[in-house]
Amino acid sequence: xxxxxxxxxxxxxxxxxxxxxxxxxxxxxxxxxxxxxxxxxxxxxxxxxxxxxxxxxxxxxxxxxxxxxxxxxxxxxxxxxxxxxxxxxxxxxxxxxxxxxxxxxxxxxxxxxxxxxxxxxxxxxxxxxxxxxxxxxxxxxxxxxxxxxxxxxxxxxxxxxxxxxxxxxxxxxxxxxxxxxxxxxxxxxxxxxxxxxxxxxxxxxxxxxxxxxxxxxxxxxxxxxxxxxxxxxxxxxxxxxxxxxxxxxxxxxxxxxxxxxxxxxxxxxxxxxxxxxxxxxxxxxxxxxxxxxxxxxxxxxxxxxxxxxxxxxxxxxxxxxxxxxxxxxxxxxxxxxxxxxxxxxxxxxxxxxxxxxxxxxxxxxxxxxxxxxxxxxxxxxxxxxxxxxxxxxxxxxxxxxxxxxxxxxxxxxxxxxxxxxxxxxxxxxxxxxxxxxxxxxxxxxxxxxxxxxxxxxxxxxxxxxxxxxxxxxxxxxx
Length: 478
Description:
This protein has nine helices and 32 strands.
């Protein structure tokens, strides 16, 4: 039996013409009828832009949005059976509750008795019956949020879009409204598509979570899948607390990381470089020498239901969450059960960029010269009288020949002087990997580079990128 998908997004891309910025790139998603789907990611990841394209407030540069099989990508918002609830509820302050909810129905010129019936029904749904004549200003934040939802629901949309609707509420009210929204979804049976940057919110309410970063989908799955089986280091770091380490498979279901060899559940080929994810609650504390690795306790913080303990082991740092405390300065042992270790094949984060050959037979990138012996890059080539010849003794057209330059993340240096390096950029993401930080730096050319550095920089720092020539490798672009 075929799945009943209410909406499908096929290869959706949104690029803004004024600056060439791509907010969403090749986004694909299928949403089942009645499903609660959450777009989750940091600010600027493209989740709200995607929601606005579904609503019709933004038009995709390319791709299709299928509603019940029909492409609505170019359809205006008022022609779509979709309603949106925003973070700022946009209630009309000069109207009472009844008038706010009835506004859309009056635009449709429905009979007054039918409007009254529909408004009463949705007020009952959001547990605010009897509030018809109240002013918006007399309502609490939670009540205003429910009125905004009622105003959207009264139009009987096939899909309800919610753009961070709990963001303006305090913590206690937000948690209460999470449960209310989930109950409301279960009762109504309509499709909810929800946007948030709050991981707990996504895990609490969703049937399906779409984790986004830099305009791209990182992982789609159930809350359990996303938490227990993250597909990459970004997802592991963004969803809950994680220890992330570089590791290598040393045998059948054996992995070495953080200075010790552990048994795991993943059967990955020996010698494979991997990223290892360990949740803090899965680390087992032992006496010194009785675990797989030892470490010195550097911090203990009481969090109410558990202690958060930081342990230094060699160059690595392990975060532990335990109901048992520890003493700062003590050396303890640590071990893990095989099912407490999650293995991900290490991604290739090699930085590659294209450079032109300059008249003096070096390389040119962003007005910077990179010194390079092209005779070692182009097989059989030689230089005679300032001209580059190929192996057949024919002159090489240097204007048409491009050189691909590669460098590893650990060989790039960050500088607080933006003019210091080959290029500059802004830090848009960072992940701590046990003994170093892995940064995503978006360059002034719009490229995202991965940089490994032991020092802590801040999000949005503007940095210079120093790429040492002796760490570069070169190849002719085919």
